[in-house]
């Protein structure tokens, strides 16, 4: 029902999480006790489950987990992935992560997750994902959680900006209750992120890392790019209302600056010695600002 609803009502790509091991399954525990020299659990539980999942639900992304206790040869990962990419109903579109055995993370997979909350802070050569949680302490729902245990929307947008600038994808996890409800604080974070992306998604979706990931002159600025445009994601509004950038090489005659969500050109000049840019942030009423938490400057015709 979930797969049908998502495909019928949204343009979201449908993917599924799947754990290779079942913590307390007696067949798995028996294989484990045998040093993983037997594969009774694989033959009777795991492989039938994986093939059924793909054939029935046709996920475009398989987020594998629970791999760390045994090598890929025990899990049968090579055989399953060979079928998935060559003969399965999603063979032409499917993407998988790197959790297919204790020797696979950050080495094999369409998208590297490496570790939970992986955030290298520098450009990576391989496509990667930052799988993190809105609740700092848990992937699931906690009745005892306190307000300070949850990331603020500003912290989440900062995480998104850094991740995408370095070529990664952000997986923002919220934990439902036992009966499937998303509690209000998680709803708030999700809707806040959605509101921000409605205005600034141009700098995120289908973007690519630029030649520079973050600004060194002014803290809290991350860059992305698309076609011939560079986006500067500004996480803190400058107190002086003036923003200094050293990374972009601007042309006084052709470079244009705008803010996503505002229909106006923004004034700028070259920095000292003709290096960098000094940008005058728009002086508009607070109610007219396109975002409450972070702002994106669109830089056209820069190098």
TrEMBL record:
Domain Glycoside hydrolase family 29 N-terminal: 2-202
Enzyme class: hydrolase
E.C. code: 3.2.1.51
UniProt feature coiled coil, ranges: none
UniProt keyword Membrane present: no
GO BP term, example: fucose metabolic process
Alpha-L-fucosidase C-terminal domain residues: 213-299
Keywords: Glycosidase, Hydrolase, Signal
InterPro entries: FUC_metazoa-typ, Fucosidase_C, GH, Glyco_hydro_29, Glyco_hydro_29_N, Glyco_hydro_b
Any one GO cellular component localisation term in the record: lysosome
GO molecular function: alpha-L-fucosidase activity
Family under the similarity heading: Belongs to the glycosyl hydrolase 29 family.
Role noted for this protein: Alpha-L-fucosidase is responsible for hydrolyzing the alpha-1,6-linked fucose joined to the reducing-end N-acetylglucosamine of the carbohydrate moieties of glycoproteins.
PANTHER family: ALPHA-L-FUCOSIDASE, ALPHA-L-FUCOSIDASE-RELATED
Name by which UniProt lists this protein: alpha-L-fucosidase
């Amino acid at each position: 029902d979930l797969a049908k609803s998502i495909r019928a009502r949204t343009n979201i790509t449908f993917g599924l999480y799947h754990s290779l091991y079942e913590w307390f399954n007696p067949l798995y525990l028996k294989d484990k006790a045998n040093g993983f020299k037997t594969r009774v659990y694989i033959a009777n539980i795991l492989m039938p489950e994986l093939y059924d999942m793909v054939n029935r639900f046709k996920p475009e992304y398989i987020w594998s987990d629970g791999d760390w206790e045994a090598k890929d040869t025990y899990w049968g990962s090579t055989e399953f992935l060979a079928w998935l990419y060559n003969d399965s109903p999603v063979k032409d579109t499917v993407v998988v992560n790197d959790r297919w055995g204790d020797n696979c993370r950050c080495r094999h997979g369409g998208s590297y997750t490496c570790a939970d909350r992986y955030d290298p802070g520098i450009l990576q050569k391989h496509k990667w994902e930052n799988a993190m949680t809105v609740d700092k302490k848990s992937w699931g729902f906690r009745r005892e959680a306190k307000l300070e245990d949850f990331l603020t929307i500003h912290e989440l947008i900062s995480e998104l900006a850094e991740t995408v600038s370095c070529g990664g994808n952000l997986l923002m996890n919220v934990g439902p209750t036992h009966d499937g409800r998303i509690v209000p604080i998680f709803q708030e974070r999700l809707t806040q992120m959605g509101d921000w992306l409605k205005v600034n998604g141009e700098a995120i979706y289908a973007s690519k890392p630029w030649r520079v990931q973050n600004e060194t002159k002014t803290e809290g600025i991350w860059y992305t790019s698309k076609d011939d445009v560079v986006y500067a994601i500004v996480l803190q509004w400058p107190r002086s209302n003036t923003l200094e950038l050293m990374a972009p090489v601007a042309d006084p005659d052709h470079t244009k600056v705008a803010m996503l969500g505002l229909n106006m050109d923004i004034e700028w000049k070259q920095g000292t010695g003709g290096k960098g840019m000094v940008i005058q942030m728009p002086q508009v009423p607070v109610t007219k600002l396109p975002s409450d938490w972070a702002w994106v400057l669109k830089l056209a015709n820069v190098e």
